[in-house]
Structures are given as structure tokens and as C-alpha cells.
Amino acid sequence: MNISLAQPTTRQSAPVIFHVEGISKVYRMGEVEVHALRSLNLDLYESEFVVLLGPSGSGKSTLLNILGGLDIPSSGHFYFRNQDLTNANDAVLTRFRRNSVGFIFQFYNLIPSLTARENVALVTEIARHPMKPEQALELVGLRDRLDHFPAQLSGGEQQRVAIARAIAKRPEVLLCDEPTGALDFQTGKIVLEALAQVNQELGTTTAVITHNAGIAGMADRVITMRSGEITNIQYNEHKLAPSALEW
Ligand SMILES: Nc1ncnc2c1ncn2[C@@H]1O[C@H](COP(=O)(O)OP(=O)(O)OP(=O)(O)O)[C@@H](O)[C@H]1O
């Protein structure tokens, strides 16, 4: 199914950051072919906050992984700021991921023997124009947890360290796959507050995959997928603060 790309967005004057044109992804498992994405078209705009919904197996992670240069489509084209990355080689994709993309996953993948500040510093040491680890941690509300080790932090705090680590290199996009999947309601909201804050303060284009439809209210756009296709795009005229979300 092709969705019109000409609809207005709340960021309608913003330039396109990702242009996805008819991408398909087929996984071959022996004799069996799994069509994870089917001729999908999508534009994402600078600074927008997008929530991706859809049942398990609908292709959300596959799409996010392609956007982030972790996977490549079987056919179609994928552009980042007019640069065609569809057939980019490993060196180009590595540079793209390193300079332009921050990833957040359900599990935080922090290094247990390093403090919050040191976990973030690992990334800032190799980035081009990083912010200071302290600044990144302050942005996610962890100024007073700089010298704590992961084991001394709650799940929500660890996820916020992971967010600080992802944004400290000032990526243009932040791709989040089930960032609150392992967290309870209240803690999940605090993590969403941190993502909203980063989106607002740094203008980082943010895409969040979730099974939780209650999160949709904080997005500029809500994209719903089913069986490898986009079945609906909804525009929120009035975004909700994460604290006002209910699920
Ligand atoms: N590496 C892979 N090899 C084979 N099949 C895969 C692979 N990755 C994903 N798939 C299949 O592609 C389809 C889409 O998977 P994907 O993970 O993108 O869905 P999803 O919407 O993110 O699901 P979930 O919400 O459960 O994470 C599924 O049928 C899945 O089994």
C-alpha cells in the first residue's frame, strides 16, 4: 500500500532528512522467503518526533535498521539528506552511523565497570563535535548520577545514560527500538521525557518503535505498519507531554 507523501506535517517547512522509495526487504531462510518490507515509501522530516506502531513482525525493526545503516534493503532506494545510501559500502555506512545516528535499544548495553560519565565518554572520545559527557547526562536529568556505576542506577536511569551516550555525539537522528519495553509505567514516562527533551533542545529527528499505543500522543506523526507496509499515518495537531500520557 502506498501512502501519499504530500500530507502536511506539524514540521511541514522542515527539510526531508530520510527519503525512502519503494524499499522491500526479503529474508531467505532456506526455501522460505519472509517479506519483511513491501515497496515501502516514507519521508521523515528534520526535527520531527515519529512513533512507529504495529503488531509483532510487521517490519518496524527492519525499517529502523535500514534507516540507521545497520541493514540494507533488498530493493528500492533509501536517501539520507539526498545521499543515496542504498548501495553504500561498509565504510560509508560505518561513517554514516558513527556521525549521524544514535541508537537506543530496549536493553541499555552499558559497560558495568564504567561510571555513567565514563560510559558516555567512550563515545565522545571518538566523535567529531561531541558535547561533554556531563552536558549530555544533564540533558537527561542525571547531573547528580555522574559517578554512579550501572549497578547503582535504576533501569530508567540506566536507559537515560544510554540516551546520553547516544546523543553526546550530536547525531542528526535518534532511532529507538522499544526504549521503554523493559520499564514500568512511571519509569517509562521519565525516559520518554528525556527523549522529548532531547528532541526539543537539540532538534534531533527521533523515531521510536513501540508496542504501546499510549505513547503515540507525544509524537508529531504516528506511523502504523502491518505486514511490511505502512497502513496509516496520523498527524497530532497537539502533542502531549509524556507526563500526560496514559496507558
Ligand atoms: N534476520 C532475519 N532473518 C530472517 N527473518 C527475519 C530477520 N529479521 C526479521 N525477520 C522477519 O521479518 C519480519 C519483520 O520483522 P521485524 O523484526 O522487522 O518486525 P517488528 O515489527 O519489529 O516486530 P517486533 O515488534 O516483534 O519487534 C518478521 O517476520 C521476522 O520474523
From TrEMBL:
SMART domains recorded: AAA
Keyword Ion transport set for record: no
PROSITE patterns in UniProt: ABC_TRANSPORTER_1, ABC_TRANSPORTER_2
InterPro entries linked to this entry: AAA+_ATPase, ABC_transporter-like_ATP-bd, ABC_transporter-like_CS, MacB-like_ATP-bd, P-loop_NTPase
Molecular function GO terms recorded: ATP binding; ATP hydrolysis activity; transmembrane transporter activity
Keyword check for Nucleotide-binding: yes
A Pfam family of this chain: ABC_tran
Gene Ontology CC annotation, any one: membrane protein complex
UniProtKB keywords: ATP-binding, Nucleotide-binding, Transport
ABC transporter domain ranges (all copies): 18-247
Superkingdom in the source lineage: Bacteria
Family membership: Belongs to the ABC transporter superfamily.
Name the UniProt record assigns to this protein: Putative ABC transporter ATP-binding protein
